[in-house]
Automatic annotation (TrEMBL):
Source taxonomy: Bacteria, Bacillati, Actinomycetota, Actinomycetes, Micromonosporales
Presence of keyword Iron: no
Enzyme class: oxidoreductase
Functional summary from the UniProt entry: Catalyzes the reduction of ribonucleotides to deoxyribonucleotides. May function to provide a pool of deoxyribonucleotide precursors for DNA repair during oxygen limitation and/or for immediate growth after restoration of oxygen.
Every Ribonucleotide reductase class II vitamin B12-dependent N-terminal domain range: 52-142
Protein name: Vitamin B12-dependent ribonucleotide reductase
InterPro entries per UniProt: RdRp_reductase_class-2, RNR_2_N, RNR_lg_C, RNR_NrdJ/NrdZ, TSCPD_dom
Positions of region (Disordered): 1-25
Sequence ranges assigned to domain Ribonucleotide reductase large subunit C-terminal in this UniProt record: 163-698
Reactions accelerated catalytically: a 2'-deoxyribonucleoside 5'-diphosphate + [thioredoxin]-disulfide + H2O = a ribonucleoside 5'-diphosphate + [thioredoxin]-dithiol
Residues of the signal peptide: none
Necessary cofactors: adenosylcob(III)alamin
Family: Belongs to the ribonucleoside diphosphate reductase class-2 family.
Amino acid sequence: MAGDGITAGRQRSRTNTSGGGGAAAGGLRVERVWTTAGVHPYDEVEWERRDVVMTNWRDGSINFEQRGVEFPGFWSVNAANIVTTKYFRGAVGTPERETSLRQLIDRVVQTYRKAGEEHGYFATPADAEVFDHELTWMLLHQVFSFNSPVWFNVGTKSPQQVSACFILSVDDSMDSILEWYKEEGLIFKGGSGSGVNLSRIRSSKELLSSGGTASGPVSFMRGADASAGTIKSGGATRRAAKMVILDVDHPDIEEFVSTKAREEDKIRALRDAGFDMDLGGADIVSVQYQNANNSVRVSDEFMTAYENGTEFGLRGRLNGEVIETIDAKKLFRDIAQAAWECADPGLQYDDTINDWHTNPETGRITASNPCSEYMSLDDSSCNLASLNLMKFLTADGGFEVEKFVKSVEFIITAMDISICFADFPTEKIGITTRAYRQLGIGYANLGALLMASGLPYDSDGGRSVAAAITSLMTGTAYRRSAELAGVVGAYDGYARNADAHQRVMRKHAAANDEVRAQGPVATEILREATRQWKNGNKIGEKNGWRNAQASVLAPTGTIGLMMDCDTTGIEPDLALVKFKKLVGGGSMQIVNQTVPRALRSLGYPEEQVEAIVEHIGEHGNVVDAPGLKPEHYAVFDCAMGDRSIAPIGHVRMMAAVQPFISGAISKTVNMPESATVEEIEEIHYQGWKLGLKALAIYRDNCKVGQPLSAGKTAKAAAPAAVEEKAVEKVVEKVVEYRPIRKRLPKKRPSETVSFSVGGAEGYLTASSYPDDGLGEVFLKMSKQGSTLAGVMDAFSVAISIGLQYGVPLETYVSKFTNMRFEPAGMTDDPDVRMASSVMDYIFRRLALDFLPYDTRAELGIFTAKERTAQAQAEAAAEAAAADLAVTNMAESAPAATPVTPTVTVAEVKASAVPEKPAGSSTELLELVTGHAADAPLCFTCGTKMRRAGSCYVCEGCGSTSGCS
């Protein structure tokens, strides 16, 4: 029945917009979907006044204050705070300052309506009014949101910049390079981000016309990075967001691959020396290349050479001839190694990208925006909007297909209208964007939708639903684009690219036919998607299309918070516990609202739902939850925590939806800290095999150095198990101080450790007595017969004889640690990150291997695991100290602190973590799981941020490190 209604509705729409070519004069007929005739959307909701006071979580200072702002009662405190601080225009305290969500929505929607009427989009004023009301209703009820620049600029006296994503170009000339610097600066100033491919710049292995050697693209990256770090983005509201890309056949590719990994070594060394190297820290500017994401553009030719283990040619930029050959397997491994060390570079699969390119006659796609979801022509831009998928999930677990289709129609129409009045940072970008009209509709809350439906994120059923929704979204968007072409004309570049555009549309439709629907919901969605592609392609063959591109999957950082989404973009849930701000101040821990909904959809009765929710609130996971079937555990797997989704699960989800996206997907594949270089290499390879356009990995804690703790603190905070083990060793160990040599037996246990200190390599062999006491040390450095080798041999003999005569190892450790001389610096030992000399490293290593915990604690020497345990124990101690005060606060909360209606008794019971230590969901997750997340602190409010795609978003104030 629903399908028949949709078909009829679609047919009426097509008759009005694209029949016989005469529709251009008639314009669009617009039908109501969400609204009621005669009732304005604002009159359907209850409004309330709130005070928005934003404080720095760390020191309590006030960052922002505006009292008496107006929002619907169902908007969360966090969403209202972010909209007030980020999007309301006018100086605070002046009559020009916006004070209500109505003013904000009207400012944007009225501008869109006026431009639509002026440019002939609507058949009648009545149609324009319905469009106005529908758009208003959807924004008011958080059904979708435009990207941030729309809220920043539309309807203000500022330039009407609506795009968040920009792609630039740079040629092999100094004029072009300096113009690149200037264009990036203007884009950052406007609060957006840009990407650029530097492969046209000749390499450092080629000559200049003057006879000298070229600098190469990596050298020019330094100037651009410094510029970005100085300008920031949007007047210092967030870091400048940029992407730098180099083709895999560029002669400087090896230098490019290792660039950020080398700088990450500097960051670790400086941080360990006491400098502030956090995101936005005072000293981070002393290292380079930190304002950009780096990506290598790999070709099918290179990937085939990698598969076959053959050589691959690097080509000069001047004549395209091969000037050097490299081992493809080694370069691919080097890329994985660099990503293992610092998460950069990512990969972009060039031939796949251009195989889905609708405008190849105009030029190849060479670059992307900073988050890698927008890929199109050089000097172009894309405005984005994202749907909140949870708004289409029905109470019985169905999906409102008809409303989804109509919503996509409204959004695409509005987005296309915006190009008619939009301003652009450069003339070149304006010309390209108006000629090709690239759009980027997408969605958020996919992870929440799947969990609420009882589907694991990493499952065939979950991927089936995701693919069907994505196909329906893009198919509808292109069908509406074809209808718009019949009303206001195809995009200017369509004529020369008509064959290629139609070919890509057929590829999308063919991919849709390959999806295997799993379950009735996916079947219904896919059936309508098939209809949309068929009818849209038929209309497009006649009218052409209004837009060269239609969809992307963006990270939806700030706008995801604005829409009260539990999950961003295509991401799964971060965790099962959530940090929630309360009306009137304060905050609490709750179990994600998606969890009880998922349990009910799986058939659990209410008493079991409550018991499971309480278990999750206490433990942070579903393992051993009372009554929960083990086969349902996977439904609640998250991005972080004890049951986290496997990296390949993220890749498979991306592969499922990629054929139905015009651009690409902003998503980082999270990998555990224990992941190996080989595992990262395999993920990179699978990304190519599965047809992705871009892929970036992030290994947990790859950018964080563990701080050293004082000995006393460590001893007090040591876990009981560690202390007991240490005590046992102390009891068992009998140290004799008699000057009698106790020789080692002929056959004794020993171990050899290879090490590197500041680039100097060596080997340490330690032999012990059968009762586990160190008795002999041999050190091997430099070549046999050299002075250094002789000195090290003599030193080894002296130390070994001393040990055998009873000199305690701790005496040597106390004397030789912290000695300073060259070589010194970074080591390759995860337990000893820095050493002030080779002696310092050797005796720290010996202490870790042979001294009991108590002795080492006094010396301040700990393993990486022990340092982690200390941090956990300290956090637990703080929690215990604050527990009594928090309990008293919770008991008095109903009388003293207003609580939003969505907080249930079960959620209050689940609030076992004290308020003070956590300022965001990421910090809360750290307390629940006992594992530290290496997300940076927000440089605006000090709250720990969380990942959104390949960027970070602050739940406290909405700041992002990306461009969306």
